[in-house]
Design brief:
By secondary structure, the chain is an alpha/beta fold. The chain is built from eleven helices and 19 strands. Helix 4 packs across helix 5 and helix 4 packs across helix 10. It is globular. Keywords: Oxidoreductase. GO terms for molecular function: 15-oxoprostaglandin 13-reductase [NAD(P)+] activity; zinc ion binding. Pfam families: ADH_N, ADH_zinc_N. This is 15-oxoprostaglandin 13-reductase.
Amino acid sequence: MSSLLLLRNGRRAVPVIRGGRTATGALSGVHPVARRFIIDMSYSAHFMDFNGSSIPSSMKKLVVNKLSPNFREAVSTQTVAVPTPGDGDLLVRNRFVGINASDINYSAGRYDPSVKPPFDTGFEGIGEVVGLGLSASSSHTVGDTVAYFGSGAFAEYTVVPAKESVPVPAVKPEFLTLLVSGATAYIALKRLGDLAKGETVLVTAAAGGTGQFAVQFAKQAGCHVIGTCSSNEKAGFLKSIGCDRPINYTTEDLAKTLRKEYPQGIDVVYESVGGSVFELAVNSLANKGRLIVIGFISGYQTASGIPAFRGGTLPVKLLQKSASIRGFFLPHFLSDYREALGSMMQMYAKGKLVCEVDCGDLAQEGRFVGLESVFRAVDYMYAGKNLGKVVVEVAPPAVSNSGDRSPNAAGWRKVNRKQKVPMEEVYDICQDPGWVEDSAHPLRRPRVTHRTAVAEVVTTP
């Protein structure tokens, strides 16, 4: 018995395979057009839910439709088809996504003015691999848990290049905190901070997503750490992670406290607020002090995106103290990213790093669950209510397990169990649910990716 794979296009049946595979694994005797079709579809055997169930045909995602610093005005929720991963891609079912102050800068079009709406938004996510391309299957498998840093995370499913994904041991939001917030603090302090044991470090917004990590990394470097925050609860948290001097600026005058308690000035400032806080940081620098600017959240919601600043005397102040201001933007330091992430993962695994997550459990409207909660989560963060990294639990629709899975169900194609038929050579994409019974892969359902043709197995004497 030999096999003949036919590609049916309309009423015409074109021979595709006349024989088996060569020793190298190539398909022998394949019609040129059909060969391209098979290669394009070869990953579909891998494209399935890890429970053997179908992936929904549609999903929700957030899309920027209008450039605006008002996130609610700029972004809308849309229902679209679940994307198909390319040859080297993973399809990730997002379980958690992270909220960043820069989400508003992105929705306002400040990072790349050449990009026009509509475009996807969201920078980081973590979840399970539910589909993948053939090349990606050499390093990943369906069911893997991965995290990623890239555009388009605010969606129930996201296609991620396999080489850019980060394997994680479990789908925990704590790992998500490291992707942007942790990496920013780790790399900025290492590359720009030049921290030395015994130096004094000031971290503004210290109980926030990235501030919490700056406090811990500076303390690990043997520095005396000061952290600003907006409540006694946050001050208590800062003490618990090693901050030497939490300052609740709602009950203490920050400028007076710094002048009184640190008359020699601050050696390193990790600054993310901007405006008057930035001015205070400049004025508080010690001789040879370094001010690292990782953002200025106080101005992001304005039309210009830049907080007011009286900088006329800035050159004089820097010259008088031989001080410096150093900007940090994570995409410019991606060569350091893998090392930073690996180091932080090890610290967390050993219990040497706290990754505080705020899923809005104490928010007025409750926990952030579902993509629609991203809007609330952004407002929550900009109101300064968060303690730690703000994270949304996406919780996409449950994958359907319905339907007849018996061998007699519609859409099955019988294959002689004594005949070994590789899954990538068998496609039944004419019907739904499109099941293929195969001795090597029982109860597996390839993802329907093309509905313009049908491939079927024909046995010949």
